[in-house]
Each structure stands twice: as structure tokens, then as C-alpha cells.
Specification:
Layout (H helix, E strand, L loop, with lengths): L5 H9 L5 E3 L6 H13 L24 E5 L1 H5 L2 H7 L18 E5 L13 E5 L8 H12 L1 E6 L10 H6 L6 H8 E3 L8 E4 L2 H11 E3 L7 E8 L4 H10 L1 E2 L4 E2 L3 H13 L3 H12 L2 E6 L2 H8 L6 E5 L13 E6 H4 L10 E4 L6 H8 L11 E8 L3 H11 L11
Parallel strand pairs: 1-5, 1-8, 2-3, 2-4, 4-5, 9-16, 12-14, 12-15, 13-14, 15-16
Antiparallel strand pairs: 6-7, 10-11
Helix pairs in contact: 1-2, 9-10
């Protein structure tokens, strides 16, 4: 049996240095990325590449040190180790065919700055983090100039500005300033820079097509999304909208961000939500629950599930319980990507996230190529408040919700 599926072989044949391998969450991008490093960059052979679908394995002829920059959770859970093992490699030299001849490092994006001086090696950047012009982007550009590299992402970019670091790393532009001068038109008379439109988009599309390698998805899972109606305090909600006063701080609301947070807290704190959660968890013995805010976590922890509970957020990093019945509480920002779970077929969204990308990534935690489940269930708790409906409409059009438009 081949290490790679047909779609993965097809993607591998198109890949080149500096490309973005784009496949949906759980489609096997990690394995395909290692295969590119092994076969095309270091000239090894695995079954299927040059010898049909045999079991041939020829070690790398020109091995290079491999650095994998991924999420902290994926690093800590050692998910890359199982993929590396298929190629007889490991971050531990004792378990690698190549011993100490090559170094394999798996680390998080938070530590990317440590590798700015590395040269003559190969980097796999897992998940799209090179957006903007911060430390991560500067480190990425330094690394890309002196090493071979590819990037793996299910959601590579929403706007042309998201692609700027990749375009610069590929030598299409000298820097971010040159890109803006050639393609970005800003709206006049605004307090902060706001892109009005892009020019030369035909050229940008050709550049993106040159580096974006899309991998087909052949998984057979069926997603079933169900809306769970919940209540909210209409009078309290309307009072906040009218008086613009924050009852939790006992002060006037200062800005759009606080306005949205206050309204969402009223909606998300309604007693009907934990009641709905308990009913769903009785129906599904193993469930992952995504939430946004700390006060939601406190509500979720106060529910009597009658089973073991574990958390993954910015404060606590606990593994998924090993039992017949459990609840796993995950905060969107901390755990929407970079890990997977094939032990359950259920995700419950206590509240919707404002980001389409986060919702898409979160949904993919259980939708994996190797999941034993064909039917996957996604429950969204949603009230009839305008803020819940507005967020839902934005996500349905694959856009992010922006409270400023309603403030």
C-alpha cells in the first residue's frame, strides 16, 4: 500500500520550492510536505514515485537538516513524529535511519526567531502565520533567503496583503513597500489605512497560481450541521443598545469592541445555553466544545456532565481524556488548529467565533482522513439576537464579522 493517496501524489508532482500546499484540514498536507522534502529536495525514493506502487524505499541521497515550524499543540502532542516515521525519520536520532547525519527539529511559531541564522537546510512551515510585518514575518523572510522551504495551509489568505510575505520570499517583490506602491489604493480621509481597491489583480492572480498547489480531497465523511435554538434576555439586550452602558463595569461603553463584547456576554450567558449543552452531551458521550471567552469557560465548567472534563486554552493545556465518556473544552484562539481527534464525531459550538477561518479550522479537528466515522455532527447554539444572526450571516459568506459596521 502506498504511503500517499492519489491526490497527494498529484500535488507532490506539482510542488516546488517556495510553494503553498493548500488542502482542507485533515487532508494529509503534513505527510505530503515531508514527501516533497524527502523525494524532490533530498532525492530519496518512496513507493509510488518512480517505481509504481511497490514497496521500494531508497534513502535520501542528499539529506539536509529538516526544521518543521508548527503550532505549539501539534509540537507538544508529537503529531509530526508519526508522519516522519513513515519515512524512517525522527527528531530523535536513535529512532532515525539517518542517525546524527541530519537534524530534525519540530518547534512552534513562537520560537521561529531562534532559527533566523540557519542556512543550507529545509523548512516546512505548517499553518499560515506569515501575515503582516511582525517578528514572525521578518524571521520567515530571513529563513527563506538561506534555505529551501514550503508552506502548508488550509486557508492561505483572504486578501492580497496576506500573500505579500510569500510573494517577497519568492522574489516577486523586493519588499512590502514595493507591493503596496504597485497594487494598493487606500481610501482617502480615513483615520487609519483602509484598502479601497487593488490594481493589477490579473498579475497577482498569475503569481498566486504559480505558487499555490491545491490538493484534492477524497475523504468520505458527511458533515451534519444543526442549529440549536437558545434564548436571550431581550429587555436587557435592548437596554444596553439604547443606553450604551456596560453593566459589568458600571461605566459607559467606550468603543465598538466593548459594545460587541457586552452584547455577546448578555446573549452567551443565558441559562438556556448550559441547559442545551447538557442535553447534547447526554446524547453524545464524547464531545468537543468550542468557546470564545473566559466567562463562557466558567459557565461550561459549572455544568454537571457526569464524566471527565479536560481543557485546552491559553492557561491550561490538558490532553483529551482517555475514557469512554468525556467533554473537551477548547478555546478558539488556542485550539482551533494544529491538532486532531478521531475518537469523537461531535463538535459543539457554545458560541460562534467572528472569524470564518477559525470556524473552518475548528470544524476540521474531527474531520480527518483516518477518522472511523462517516457522519460528523456539528451543533451551533444560536439565539435570535441580531448579533448572533449577523455573525452567522458573515460566516455563511466566508467573511469575518466586524462589529464596527453596527456600532
Amino acid at each position: 500500500m502506498s504511503i500517499l493517496s492519489n491526490p497527494q501524489w498529484n500535488a507532490l508532482s506539482q510542488m516546488k520550492n517556495g510553494c503553498i500546499l493548500c488542502g482542507d484540514v485533515g487532508s494529509g498536507k503534513s505527510r505530503t510536505g515531508i514527501a516533497y522534502y524527502f523525494c524532490k529536495h533530498c532525492h530519496g525514493v518512496i513507493d509510488g514515485l518512480e517505481n509504481g506502487y511497490s514497496e521500494d524505499y531508497i534513502p535520501m541521497q542528499d539529506p539536509l537538516d529538516l526544521y518543521i515550524i508548527t503550532t505549539a499543540q501539534k509540537r507538544d502532542k508529537k503529531e509530526w513524529e508519526s508522519e516522519l516515521g513513515l519515512f524512517l525519520m525522527s527528531s530523535n536520532p536513535e529512532f532515525s535511519l539517518y542517525g546524527k547525519n541530519i537534524s530534525v527539529v519540530v518547534d512552534s511559531w513562537n520560537n521561529i526567531k531562534k532559527y533566523r541564522k540557519v542556512s543550507g537546510s529545509f523548512f516546512i512551515f505548517d499553518e499560515q502565520r506569515v501575515v503582516g510585518s511582525g517578528v514572525w514575518v521578518k524571521s520567515f523572510l530571513d529563513i527563506s533567503r538561506k534555505n529551501g522551504w514550503i508552506l502548508l495551509s488550509a486557508t492561505p489568505g483572504d486578501t492580497w496583503l496576506d500573500y505579500v510575505p510569500i510573494f517577497v520570499a519568492n522574489g516577486f517583490y523586493k519588499n512590502r513597500t514595493e507591493f503596496k506602491d504597485r497594487h494598493v489604493v487606500y481610501a482617502p480621509y480615513t483615520k487609519y489605512p483602509k484598502v479601497e481597491r487593488y490594481i493589477g489583480e490579473g498579475h497577482l492572480m498569475r503569481l498566486r497560481k504559480d505558487i499555490l498547489i491545491k490538493m484534492e480531497d477524497q475523504r468520505e465523511t458527511m458533515r451534519h450541521t444543526k442549529i440549536v435554538p437558545v434564548e436571550y434576555d431581550k429587555l436587557f439586550f435592548k437596554d444596553i443598545m439604547t443606553r450604551r452602558f456596560n453593566p459589568y463595569t458600571d461605566k459607559p461603553i467606550k468603543n465598538a469592541s466593548e459594545y460587541g463584547y457586552t452584547l455577546r456576554k448578555i446573549v452567551n450567558s443565558d441559562p438556556s445555553r448550559p441547559k442545551a449543552i447538557k442535553e447534547l452531551c447526554l446524547k453524545h458521550p464524547k464531545a468537543i466544545i468550542f468557546y470564545n471567552f473566559d466567562y463562557e469557560l466558567e459557565i461550561l465548567k459549572g455544568i454537571d456532565y457526569g464524566c471527565q472534563i479536560a481543557e485546552w486554552n491559553g492557561h491550561v493545556h490538558e490532553p483529551i481524556p482517555q475514557s469512554d465518556k468525556w467533554v473537551y473544552l477548547v478555546q478558539y484562539a488556542a485550539g482551533c488548529e494544529g491538532w486532531n481527534c478521531i475518537e469523537t464525531d461531535t463538535i459543539i459550538f457554545y458560541s460562534l467565533n467572528h472569524s470564518y477561518k477559525m470556524m473552518h479550522q475548528a470544524s476540521g479537528r474531527i474531520d480527518r482522513m483516518n477518522t472511523p466515522f462517516k457522519d460528523l455532527f456539528y451543533y451551533q447554539l444560536k439565539s435570535t439576537s441580531w448579533i448572533d444572526l449577523a455573525i452567522s450571516r458573515a460566516l455563511a459568506t466566508k467573511k469575518d464579522f466586524n462589529i464596527r459596521a453596527y456600532y
